# Entry
Amino acid sequence: MENLLVVLIFVGSIVYKIYSNYKEEMEKSAKRGPQRPPITKSQAPGIPGKPYQQSSVPPPIPSTTARTVQQEFVTKGNIIQDIPEEVQRVKESRKKHGKGEVEPTKETNEPIAFDLRQAVIQAAILERPYR
# Structure
């Protein structure tokens, strides 16, 4: 019973210390940011306090000016001029060299030399327990 009382007092002191530190931090934050209005319990975060009211006057509609844009005649030469020089050089070099086809490798069905005894020894060496 005596141990239980000591434990309860210890836990209570820890809870009190946490609560007092929390109050101190809240006071410090109130001093740092007084520009924010405090949130009341009736207001949920993110929801404004006043309901949205629709205005009776509609917003003004901006006038649009008709723009006459002449479309330029697009040719292959015009497109090439818009492409950077580096890209043009790379395209030309690819045309010269071709696609650079890879030669297929010949596969042979030769038997694989496998020694189970040697494999077990090497596995034991690699998985050696460290002491």
